[in-house]
Write a structure and sequence with these properties.
Blueprint (H helix, E strand, L loop, with lengths): L1 H19 L31 H29 L1
Helix pairs in contact: 1-2
């Protein structure tokens, strides 16, 4: 039951976080843009100034969408067959 709760929280964070924490790139000075993890950026930033945490949440949301679409397609084909 604890694992189910953790998985639901991770899925909710990916879905909500992918849309709630929209950031733009900061390309003014790429030498000073990379930041270590801290209060402003939980996982730090990459060389282009993008938040790594935001990118992880967006990747998680895309992975969830791919899994849901694959499940629906398999159900439709399996039921039809």
């Amino acid at each position: 039951m604890v694992s189910l709760i953790v998985l639901v929280l991770i899925a909710a964070a990916c879905v909500v976080g992918a849309f709630a924490f929209h950031e733009t790139q900061k390309l003014q000075n790429t030498d000073l843009v990379t930041q270590p993890p801290g209060p402003g950026h939980w996982f730090g930033t990459d060389a282009l100034g993008r938040s790594v945490f935001q990118r992880v949440l967006t990747g998680g949301a895309i992975s969830l969408l791919v899994g849901i679409v694959a499940t629906v397609v398999a159900m439709v084909i399996g039921t039809g067959y």
